[in-house]
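Cytochrome c oxidase subunit 1, Pseudogracilibacillus auburnensis. Tokens?
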Amino acid sequence: MRMEKGKSTIIQQLIIAAMMIILMMGFGVLMLLQQGGVVDFGPAAFYQFLTIHGTGMIGGAVLAATAIMWYFLNKYVKLSLSVLKLNIVLFVLGVVMIIVGVFAFEFSGSWTFLYPLPAISSGAWGTAGALTYLIGLQLVGLGLLIVLLDAGRAIIQKYGSLGKGLGWDVITGKKREQDAPPAAVVASTMVVIVDTAALLSGTIVIFMNIIHVINPAFTFDPLLAKNLTFAFGHILANSTIYMAVIAVYEILSRSTGRPWKSNKAFLIAWTMSTLFTMIVYPHHLLQDTVMPTWALIVGQVLSFANGLPVLVITAYGALMIVYKSGIKWRMGSSLIFLSMFGWTAGVIPAILDSAIMVNHVMHNTKWVPGHFHMYMGLGVIAMLFGFMYYLVQNDQSIRPNQLDRFAFCLYTLSILGVSFSFLTSGAISTPRKFATHFEQWQAPAIFGGVSGIFLMIAIGIFIIYFIRYMVNRNKDFSVEKEIA
Ligand code: HEM
Ligand SMILES: [Cu+2]
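Tokens:
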């Protein structure tokens, strides 16, 4: 049997992403154990861990989510496989530079690299560290940008414009609902739009940082830099869910044999989230009193509504498509269904936090990592491994066994453990990004660290399944060759 075109590249990409994610979890565990007073690497190492963990996790999630988006979008429009491969090369090059920057040259300015921090480290790192880190990050961004531009090109070629990719002609009644673009195309169009904006902001601010590091006499407006940086970081991190959610649409509709219809409500929800995702980033700037008040209010108010339209329409759709469908729950569909729960549950503490009253108390506490670990860890990560199991399930005799089902339960419980550890710490006012904790803050951190170890075991079992599949597949190929 011949492989679908591009599938082995997708698999390579998923393996790189999955390996990165489990490795980065290791740094997460080390941080929690340090905060919990169990181990002590010193504050400098903690901030290196924080930097590599934040960058690596977002990078790994983006890489995996790109694989999901590419795989399904490619069924509707013609994408370039060489561009996808080039992205992997740029990604790996970039990650190597980032690792060198963080561990060899000790850059530890966090994945938010807030200007002018890369240039003023009080001796913690030098020019070399800042430059390798920033250039590495730029390479990773460049890889994603070319994949998105190619996707945008393909969508425009087939549907006429990005607006039509979002189904605007259906919303305005010029086209019938039955002829609306498929859900995968709508979601990809949204991602093309928001992530191109994010990557352009990122590129500008990374370049300005690079010039400033080389020549400190060159300065620029720190407030502008902060706006660009958080537009970049907020949108990029958020968009992982909008890429990965394509797996929900495609896998649930294939597993139930029912189509996922892009009706008007669905299209309107996606257009709203496209807009909101791009304009709510000022919720990261609430402490910058020099920001125009209206921008802060818009960011704050719309944060309530940021992902909500798409979340509601997707959660509702997922329930409806599964209801009385006689679906057979396999690892892929189970993880995908679980991810909907993770995404929904993770948004609740985020919405709480975007209430100004709550934000006054919770801002910069571990409540914040609490909510994003829940929706990334139980949302995006579940979508990613759900996709992985799905990709493999029809291919071979290799079937998930008791161990995989055990891993499914372990994964669910332990990521909840990690998330609740953060939320509890936040509720008792533990600040985030602190290398050491007072004694009364340590217990939740230790609990989270132990949960994180169990989480790594669960993810390890997922990865082992995938590796078993790879080994089997190679065997199959050699058999094929022998026959040929
Ligand atoms: C075993 C699982 C994990 C553990 C134990 C863990 C632990 C941690 C810890 C201790 C921090 C620093 C918290 C602080 O500010 O005090 C952190 C930050 C962070 N984590 Fe995780 N994490 C895990 C999984 C993930 C996943 C799956 C993602 C995303 C896909 C992720 C993304 C991030 C990001 C973006 C930050 C913020 C970095 C920064 O503030 O600069 N983590 N994590
Ligand atoms: Cu944000």
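DSSP finds 16 helices and no strands in the chain.
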